Amino acid sequence: MDDAAQLTVNDLAAGFLGSLSNPSSRKVRKAKLHQFDIEKYLVKGENNTRIRQANGPAVFGGCMVPDNFVCNPSGVVYGGYATYVPLPEPPQTEKAIS
Fold first, then answer.
1. How many domains does the chain have?
2. Within a domain: 91
3. Comparing C-alpha atoms, which of 37, 31, 41, 1 is closest to residue 17?
4. How many whole angstroms separate alpha carbon 94 and alpha carbon 31?
5. Residue 31 falls within a domain, yes or no?
6. Could you tell me if residue 29 is inside a domain?
7. How many angstroms separate the CA atoms of 16 and 53, rounded?
8. Would the N or C end of the chain have less CB density within 10 A of its end CB?
9. Domain that holds residue 19
């Protein structure tokens, strides 16, 4: 991720990484993939996820020319998986026969 990214699930902010003002954290962000637990944002049925990515200022890449993507490229890697585990059925109660 370069330089900042926000994850939303069903239009709720679920995670944020990076900075548009602190270039020293750039190497740390790019060194590994990050995970977010989004379970609390999921709803029954269809869910929507969105990644919004922003590139930092040109100086993050050592550029002297603003918006020079040759010197200061931008990108984000997104992947995911989902596991569905159904909730157990409530126990059946027997009705008394009268």
1. 1
2. no
3. 1
4. 58
5. yes
6. yes
7. 10
8. C
9. 4-61
Structure tokens at 49: 């996820």
d(CA 24, CA 15): 20
Per the omega criterion (within 30 degrees of 0), is the bond before 11 cis? no
Give the model confidence (pLDDT) of 55-95 as tens digits: 777 777 777 776 656 777 777 777 777 677 777 888 877 76
The amino acid at 69: F
pLDDT for 16-63, tens place per residue?
A: 888 777 767 655 556 677 888 898 999 988 899 998 888 777 777 777
Residues 6+ apart with CB under 8 A from 30: 1, 2
**Residue position matching structure tokens 């040759």:** 70
